[in-house]
Design brief:
258 residues; mainly beta; YmcC-like fold; 13-stranded antiparallel beta sheet; globular
Amino acid sequence: MKQIFKYWNTVLLSTILVFLMCCCSNEVNNPPDDTPPQNFFPSNIGTNYTYKVVNDSASVFDNGTRISIYTGDTTVSNVDYTIQSDDLTVGTSTIIAKSFFRKTNVGVFYFADTTGFTDFIPDTLVQFLSTPLESQALLFPLLPGSFWTVYRITISSQQVNFDPLRVGGAFEGIETLTLNLYSGDTDVEATKVKYTFTLQQNPQQLPQNFIAYAWLTEDIGMVKFEGKALLINLLVGNIDFSDTTTTTTHSLVDFEIK
């Protein structure tokens, strides 16, 4: 169960997933579109999701359930957020966590908790570290050709300039998925998003790349997530590198949209 604790170390996901745009890279591409507004992230209080969870760590599988619910409103650093509460149960272990998101017409943004990130960076570079206050889990509208910066931490000085952490999101395609819901199997059209996580501790080190995918259905939200567990953490604002090996799959089995 150690991998589960690392993976859910003070996490909470929505599935995922509004940035303060001044804190982010301006690397955003969203083709013009005349279609009606998309609703890939229903966000009303009381909306809830249940996911079947399968974690794979070195071919050791742990099965469980995650329940995610939007429970209320709060203010963090003078910004209004919705509270997302997550309850992950795997075997006899249960972990409860909270995260904070806000939704606008350009995306979904989570408050970023960077506590502990400086432990990853050499002491000589910490003073040059720049960390955004939010991560952008989604970009709206989400269309073919869309890509954006999810989160980017920079180190800039006269001697060195690089990104120790960089996450990008991109439209990957549209697929038909069969949801194995408690109420019965249902086929849905889902937009697939690819997330690429690049980690580099110092400029001399070769960067490490991690990949994950999310599938979203209009008027439902995230119906599936598959990839490195550390990426699902970061999408909801948790900067945690304690586990870079575990792969996780979250599959929707029940939901209620308010």
